[in-house]
Design a protein that fits this description.
- This is Acyl-coenzyme A oxidase.
- The longest helix is centred in the middle third of the chain and has 36 residues.
- The chain starts with a helix and ends with a helix.
- Helix content is about 55%, strand content about 10%.
- The protein is α+β, with helices and mostly antiparallel strands.
- Bound molecules: ligand LOHRUJSQ and flavin-adenine dinucleotide (FAD).
- Ligand LOHRUJSQ binds next to α7, α9, α12 and α15.
Amino acid sequence: MGVPLLKHLQDSVLSGVNPDLASERLTASFSVEKLTARLDGGAEHTRMRRAIVEAIESDPAFSRENQYFQSQNERYEAAVRRAVHLQKKMREMGWTENGPEIKYIYRWLSGDIAFLLHRVFMRSISVLGSDKQVAKWIPLATEHQIIGSYAQTELGHGTYLQGLETTAVFDIATQEFLLNTPKISAMKWWPGDMGRSATHTVVFAQLYVHGKCYGVHPFIVQIRSLQDHSPRPGVTVGDIGPKMNFEHTDNGYLMLQNVRVPRENMLSRFCEVQPDGTYVRWGSQKINYFTMTTVRISILSDEVILPLMKACTIAIRYSAVRRQSKLKPGEQEAKILDYQTQQQKLLPQLAAAYAFHFINIYLHELFDRGYQEIQGRNFDSLPELHAFSSGFKAMVTQYCTSGVEICLRACGGHGYSLLSGLPSLYTRVLASCIYEGENTVLFLQTARNAILLLITHKSEYETSACGLEYLSKFFQFSRLLSSSAAKLQHLIQSGAEKHEAWNQCTVQLVKAAQAHCHYITVKIFVETVEKLDNKAGIQKVMKHLCDLFALHGIFSNAGDFLYDGYLSGAQMDLVTASYLDLLAVIRMDAVPLVDAFDFTDKSLNSALGSYDGQVYQRLYEWAQKSPTNQQVSPAYGKYLKPLLQNRLSKL
Ligand SMILES: CCCCCCC/C=C/C(=O)SCCNC(=O)CCNC(=O)[C@H](O)C(C)(C)COP(=O)(O)OP(=O)(O)OC[C@H]1O[C@@H](n2cnc3c(N)ncnc32)[C@H](O)[C@@H]1OP(=O)(O)O
Ligand SMILES: Cc1cc2nc3c(=O)[nH]c(=O)nc-3n(C[C@H](O)[C@H](O)[C@H](O)COP(=O)(O)OP(=O)(O)OC[C@H]3O[C@@H](n4cnc5c(N)ncnc54)[C@H](O)[C@@H]3O)c2cc1C
């Protein structure tokens, strides 16, 4: 080790950094600061992000210090307090809802602030509301003069939207809609911010005019008084109770009994009921599902990819300071990061975190192009937007959830402690596999789109951005899809009804959709890496991660690639050898690669993942803060003391 490196190590250790972690930062093959800037989109963005993080973290109102010891009610109250304080902070700092700062604010606060569904409420109005409705409701919501929610899911239906039972009947005499949840299964159940916070909500209900059903449409409904927050007449509303996580959000239930709203309250950018009861629609009726499409893309960054980045940071830093067992007899216990199995657990998750960061940029670019067309009432891209948003939401949430769990389990017992931060990340990201569309049904939407194109051989799809232009090239997807299509057609030609034939192909179709999305992710990652400049060693280390992500996909699905000889056994041996060799190479950059995510200790909120690696001291210090260590347990006086004294008397 040269003198400068030795001095850097000494300085780090003197500043309190665990020497096992400090030494990992001496050999980075790239500039961490420059990679951070690349992830942020430039050094100026990094500066702004850091300034906003500093402004938030220096404000005690946003502290998460005792979060792991709080009850559901305490977590909810803290989340509301932060949301209300944020409005004051934004005014003080000159930050605005549409300003460049907002994404950094919610990136830091995500998972700990209330009114996330208030933002989805606003998005629904912005996307589906007429200009007049936007002008009326968005200012009220922006100023928090009303608090919104998004009420679509019912006790009896979440996936099958055509089966929703809430009704909205047009009353031509009063120019109103009469809303009802006619039976218990029609009760709205799950809407976030509804349990205790919301004053208004967008209710999705089956529209009836002159006795005819026009399908599911969105209606703005006031559910609580703006004077005393009491439920409005005909409204029964409350909280659905404890959940696996999401204590920062009060998911609620809602029953409606003859609740009347003005005709103007049906969101009518793309469809409306005129005063004489005439129903008019521009474009697909499925446009009323468009909020979900936008949220499926918008949640990926802060609600899904960020938890994986944080979990990788915690688990890799911990693996650099945790020494356990002897790798080489006679030497000190090894860092667990030096075990090949630990590398094979963690480094593919790190590669995925980088891959999804870049695919997220690509998805937003695709989505923005399609959304502009739709705003101009050109609905041609709607099916493709739906197909790719469904598939990628399902794939990224599934992969990140699995990845966070692997990181948790790779930290042994300390990973299971809430103080590690990993259980909260896991139970939070797990929800993303369910909300905004349960993953299986969304994969099937992607597969359905592909099958329709395959069967109709639509050539124009060959060239589309997320289309099937590689179908003839990309093996795994094309084989799975082609065999499913062939099976589908064979079953139908053999007399099976279409729905039954479809059902019998769905397992393979889900696999095909997963392969399709995985391939696109590899493709985008490769194209992104090719465009990187190699100043500061960034392109080289990103190439390693890209290769590892691709090889991990083949290594983990070897059967599909060996199937019908796409890869020979000898070639699979080469894949395995390259894959394992890469683990050892990337291991040397593992800590600098997570340092580049640039999480502060406060944003990680983890006793295992802090920058200084002083894990044991922090675990013990944080455990002392537990209320259970602040008082004699009541159980002693009531139960233990009598028990022990009873036993004592018999000794
Ligand atoms: C900051 C935010 C923090 C996040 C916190 C969490 C917030 C969570 C909120 C929620 O969970 S809100 C509720 C979310 N619910 C869902 O996502 C419901 C999932 N189900 C569906 O989307 C649909 O039911 C379905 C699974 C897609 C099936 O659709 P449908 O019931 O209509 O039947 P199909 O016959 O399959 O489809 C008919 C037709 O419509 C097309 N289509 C379906 N959905 C869309 C869409 N979103 N956009 C455009 N087109 C759509 C579908 O492709 C079919 O088209 P054709 O093939 O008939 O042309
Ligand atoms: C944390 C959280 C927050 C939420 N927030 C909101 C909110 O703010 N607003 C709101 O409206 N909703 C919200 N939801 C509800 C969420 O959108 C639904 O739970 C989700 O859409 C799944 O529907 P479901 O619960 O009815 O599950 P189901 O659809 O009953 O799914 C159960 C199982 O059935 C399978 N299945 C269902 N249909 C099919 C099919 N056609 N083919 C094959 N398999 C099928 C599924 O794959 C799954 O395995 C939230 C949920 C959670 C967990």
